[in-house]
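Pair request: fold both.
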Amino acid sequence: MTVDDWVYEAVETHGRAGATLREVQLYIDEHHLEELAVDTIESSLEQLYQNARLERDVTRWRIARRTSKEEALKKLFGDS
């Protein structure tokens, strides 16, 4: 597993409430026995956000909602 996988898993376990950076760090420490630097986790969170896999709300990160097929086509080809 990659750091991105661990971070995504950590956010996913917190459900719709989302997870803070600290909660993600604690989850990885406890479940993967790895102490990651804060900047490494922040970078991963930002990358997952840029790839539309996560959403953020000030200090909390959540799994991005899935889009319908119609919404995906509109986003891909524009709203005609």
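--- second member of the pair ---
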Amino acid sequence: MSTNAKTTPKSEMPDLAQKVREQVISTVQQGQQLSIDAAQTWVKAVSVLPTPDLPTVPGIPAVPSVEAATKYTFDLAADLLNAQREYALQLTHVLGSDKSA
């Protein structure tokens, strides 16, 4: 599975590193699809079982959905990763500029 230019920015890495990156991402995505397929099969199998409604407790706010909590967590992780990336790039720029002087 190849990635497109929109989602994969071209970097200054050699072509071999780019190919390895694409292969790693493809392998991870295949594994993810297998786990999604397994989860869907499991959900179909247990969907016939009765599930009780959870009681509400006055004064305690409703718990967000699993999907909302997952999105929030990944948004937070992406923000932290972007901050770390910016920090690392600034640091490499500072440390790299001494070599060229």
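Observation on the second member. DSSP finds two helices and no strands in the chain.
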